[in-house]
Amino acid sequence: MQICRTIQEIRTFVAKRRTGGQTVGLVPTMGYFHQGHLSLMQEAKKSCQSVVVSLFVNPLQFGPKEDFAQYPRDFDRDCAMAEAVGVDAIFVPSDREMYPEGFCTHVEVTGITGKLCGQSRPGHFRGVTTVVSKLFNIVTPDKAFFGQKDAQQAMVIQRMAADLNMGLEIIILPTVREEDGLAMSSRNVYLDQTQRQNATVLYRSLCTFRDAIDHGERNTESLRRLITDMIATTPGADIDYVEILSVPNLEPLVLLQGKVIAALAVRFGKTRLIDNIIVEV
Amino acid sequence: MQICRTIQEIRTFVAKRRTGGQTVGLVPTMGYFHQGHLSLMQEAKKSCQSVVVSLFVNPLQFGPKEDFAQYPRDFDRDCAMAEAVGVDAIFVPSDREMYPEGFCTHVEVTGITGKLCGQSRPGHFRGVTTVVSKLFNIVTPDKAFFGQKDAQQAMVIQRMAADLNMGLEIIILPTVREEDGLAMSSRNVYLDQTQRQNATVLYRSLCTFRDAIDHGERNTESLRRLITDMIATTPGADIDYVEILSVPNLEPLVLLQGKVIAALAVRFGKTRLIDNIIVEV
User: Fold this and answer.
1) Which of A148, A160, B198, B199 lies at a 20 to 30 A Cα distance from B143?
2) Which of A204, A182, A203, A180 is nearest to A191 (CA)?
3) Rounded CA gap, A82 and A42, in Å?
4) pTM for the model
5) Together in a domain, B55 and B89
6) In this structure, is residue A91 part of a structural domain?
7) If DSSP codes are grouped into helix, strand and coil, which group holds residue A267?
8) What is the value of ipTM here, to two decimals?
9) Which of B163, B170, B249 is most worth mutating to test chain A (most A CB atoms within 10 A of its CB)?
């Protein structure tokens, strides 16, 4: 597996593979890999001849009071894990390589970025779409792979790629969960043992939501209350948002119909976790 | 010359040329060609094996009170002119093709877009960078060609292409002028005979600026007054701005040094004309 630290290096790597006629898949990540990341890499390996993983904790998508400095990092472990699943190159640029002196261009999706995490984390998605645009331009992949766990991010990136005619395929893969249902996240490492235990309520509440729909419930507010009641009665759980919206436009619905998402963000101590479920009503 | 009206058609055209190993040059335009446009196409022909011209009067870069509806259009004449200089394909999409229902992504350069035309025309450069990003993604050119007449636009696009790692070369070519010095512009057709005559003051004032620097003048305010006095005393000339700034960062300077631009926008009746000169002090 080749380790590329500069834009020039990864461009050269990709150009060589392209000359050989290979297709290229990109898995953009912020590192500290878990099974969720690995499932993206494995899927990329299946459908592309060369797989590039980018590992960049993107300062642009963190707010001033967020966990950019504390975000967990373990480059050696990440490299070993990526290599084990057959990744061909890892692109690990410095902040300066990505955002040189004088950098002043941003890509922004409006509308669907104003809700859910976009409301709680102003500027977050602008940081995401800007760095993802750069990564797409640098690596020029045929396909890029993202996790369903960051559902809004996935929709925002699909919107951006379509609107700007980026000419690549965006593949969204299912959330990978721990045995007890907690969505895998690099941030789970922040949780103490009690918080970790209590955090299982998130997925349980989403399953209850799905089950209630299966049993015929269509009232959005009742379903929302079902989720919030379960979470609010869990010790240490501090709700940021619980929303039920249409997919992919994230519009509010009084009565559920079509494809809908229940999405939530909940704090346990200082750790903010997100999860979601998409249901076809 | 192939006429492509859909994104799919032009992508197919470019893919075929690429399969043949050809380099591709793009000349983005709003049509109503003059010698300035043709000089860009001719230069593109010299350095690229296939030349694509896009012709799209981009609604996104016009303000609500601007001349989008009146902007001059003559598709048949444009086609004949492009074909005569050897253009290989012309991409002429509809508004709906470029901005389908639900479109909500923009590319924005900050800083240098807040001055000159960016100040007079809020949102203008956001419209330019968004459409140019789309055109770059659709045509995937090796080189794209722009005129120095729109100096700020050229700098903004260079900034965007560098910041977002667009991986193509941006070529800026000299302003083409009428015999009497007036910068060629599709908007010159709006001028009546008197306005057309009076508009020659623009380039004359820029030449006076350059000559004063040649004679040792370095005081920005004196030089600015030299230009504004010439224009202000011309019948029918209504100054929007006259600015002298550093290149490429468009910073104000008390004493001139290095590469500087004198840029101006002046209205004759309803017609707003721009011009500029870049001088190495």
Assistant:
1) A160
2) A182
3) 9
4) 0.97
5) yes
6) yes
7) strand
8) 0.96
9) B163
